[in-house]
Amino acid sequence: MSPTPSTTSTAPTAPTAHRIGVLGMGTYLPRSRRTNEDIAGDVGVTADWITERTGVHTRHVAAPGEAASDLAAAAVRAAVAAAGIDIDQLDLLILATSTPDELGPSTACRVQALTGARNAVALDVSAACSGWLFAARVARDWLAGDPCTRYAAVVGVEAYSKFIDPADRGTAVLFADGAAASVLGPVADDGGFADFRLGSDGTGAHHVLIPAGGSRAPASPGTLAGRRHHIHMDGRAVRDFITEIFPRVVDESLARNRLRLRDIDVFITHQPNPVLLRRLGDRIGIARERLVIVGGEVGNIGAASAPYALAGAAARGLLTPGSRVLIAAFGAGVTWGSALLTWTGASVIRLGPTRPARTVPLSSPLPSSHPAPAVQRSTS
User: Fold this and answer.
1) If both were cysteines, with which of 154, 212, 250, 264 could 217 make a disulfide (CB 3.0 to 4.6 Å apart)?
2) Where is the Beta-ketoacyl-[acyl-carrier-protein] synthase III N-terminal domain positioned along the sequence (predicted)?
3) In the chain, what are the domains?
């Protein structure tokens, strides 16, 4: 699959009125986890087979009573607290997901209600695993162009476990649940986002999708019997797309900004498959210590992957004020994008399980309790 160059860019257009960057970040992972040992039997392979081919070791799974909005609301609250503002200071709340609570209204409106962000305009962006980057572009332009809008929450979230066929090896070993949010706002003139480039090629839409449940194939006994409400993925086509697009967006971003690989302090990407990412990073020439890979600990959490990796890099001390970050994303649609971000220092609050949760097979029921999460705070 060769993506056509349907792209949008902010460079080399006139500079915005003021620079917009990251003021705080928050992440949330559900309590229950599934390891490779838990799911190997359902998909007919060994735990070692999964590790060797994907690099994923564990996945967090939402409880039966947890929806995407619940995960996102926790991450947004954490990001707002990390940014040191009150929730009612949010002027904008943009949510990116492929697994909304309902087809309508927007899941962002659900999160607005859950968090009490009563002054925020709330809307969803649908760009699959590229969604957080697309949403960040919308928020950056909105904040830069409207002097009455100061703070935006941008959150990526997925509850993929609700849409996984436990016997489908191609998806069950990769996809998981989680949320990551950022608060964007004004930063110093030498910081924040400096460049975006986004792209789409709708001729590849059939490679990853949930075929039924929308207006083309409404729910019916036939769609249920055909298991068409689960994620369907052509793994080979997706691999070929990532293999082509990841190096391309890196090369184009560097060329547009007259930079070299060594000028980038940290590379943040979508996290589809850690083994594939490391292989491509080596091929591109990215030093391994500069390519952030978190998929091993959380799996593919879709629109939450890139911001979760960014938050993880900050929490691990990889980012300091002035660090130059290249963000690359790619997902279903197909969609892709890149951005440059100069880190200006931001706190990160990560919410996770209070203790190791019972791990269970994918086909087994999960506990519905929601224990208070552990809190990890870091500042960079």
Assistant:
1) 212
2) 123-202
3) 7-366 (3.40.47.10)
